[in-house]
Amino acid sequence: MQSSIAMDIPEIETKSRNEIRKFQEEKLRELMQYLANNSPFYQKLFQEKGIDPDSIQRLEDLHKIPLTTKEDLQKNNDDFICVDKRKIIDYVTTSGTMGKPITFALTDKDLDRLAYNEATSFASAGVTEEDILLLTTTIDRRFMAGLAYFLGARKLGAGIVRVGSGLPALQWDTINRVSPTTLIAVPSFIFKLIAYAKKQGIDYKNSSIKKAVCIGESLRNPDFTLNTLGQKITDLWDIELYSTYASTEMSTAFTECDQGRGGHHHPELIIVEILDEKGKACKEGEAGEVVISTLGMEAMPLLRFKTGDICQWHQDDCGCGRTTLRLGPVIGRKKQMIKYKGTTIYPPALYNLLNEFEAISAFVIEVFTNEIGTDEIVVKAASKEASPQFQKRIKDHFRAKLRVAPKVEFMDFETINKLRFPEMSRKPVLFFDKR
User: Fold this and answer.
1) How far is the C-alpha of 15 from the C-alpha of 20, rounded, in Å?
2) Superfamily assignment of 1-269+295-302+315-329 in CATH?
3) Is CATH 3.30.300.30 correct for 337-433?
4) 279/430 Cα distance (integer angstroms)
5) Could you tell me the pTM of the whole model?
6) What confidence tens digit (pLDDT) does each residue in 146-186 have?
7) Alpha carbon distances (Å) from 116 to 7, 48, 148, 216, 422
8) Domain assignments of the chain as residue spans, ordered by start
9) Which of 217, 252, 328, 389 is an S-S bond match for 312, by CB 3.0 to 4.6 Å?
10) Coil, strand or helix: which one is 57?
């Protein structure tokens, strides 16, 4: 094991629950005043709803404030900007997978905050200034994540190589030239790197890569065991895997530590609520929608923003020494919930089952409303085996695991890949909701 210089855990992340609560309530009061003074959207909301910003003193008071939605951001995008446009340094947009993309403005202070967030998140995953990170996601196309990783590595003092997405040959050439220790990658892309290495006779198992910080796809089941995707990667390549969950709207990441028991909350950067269908707080271990209020954002802070992501929260002791709340893997997105023959399903559950079939090289899932007004699921897959018998095996496996079976259609890999990577897409799209 190489010697390493680790970034210290921020002091607030090791405090008692009560101390963290008091700290966050002080930051909440600052946020309320800032929005009341600077945000056209929230000024109007407070006035229309008769909300006195000074009355929001404790975390429990948040329920008095209506939730902010993606639709609010789409319809009133500029009204969320709190600064003179001359202070804006960078513009990013959301991916638009759940509707019209949203533009986010960032000031110099916001970029410093983004760098701090990613540096401390990398530190959670054991990355130190002695590491070199191989960035396999884009840093352009108005993509916040790539920029955040670069800024975070720079603040941490780690090296970073901006190779970008695709091109396994260039990735392996970079690994051979620079000897990076850590991948930043979508998990399914790691399979492409392994497949290319096998084909080219590259001894990938003895490369410089020791760990991967994985984004965009879940690696774990709700009980924190590796899901099919995570297990397949580690079976092929003995590297450490760390999940991270983030979004453009929150400008904050929840990254696993070496305990692998959920992404750690940074209470200095964000307030988190996990709410049920009725908007009530979920108990520890219960699944609910992640709702966030950003702290320390200058250009576009958000208050009680509904992310649409369904997670469970945990706050039992963690061996890393952090005492903060942890978020489990994303179970699904609220708007992508499927009611299929009386069973509630989220797309990640379907992905996990399809990843168990070695013959399937790529897939997408489409959901539409059939002639009787109920949801219908179609799996479109590229597969080395496309017989009726294999089709039946897939459907039987779904019935055994989920009690229902979707329609299965086999297509060639090129057709599936065009569906997975629409024009201007910054990451693979596996789910198409046509309801």
Assistant:
1) 6
2) ANL, N-terminal domain (3.40.50.12780)
3) yes
4) 29
5) 0.81
6) 999 999 999 999 999 999 887 899 999 999 999 999 999 98
7) 11, 36, 9, 21, 33
8) 1-269+295-302+315-329, 337-433
9) 328
10) coil
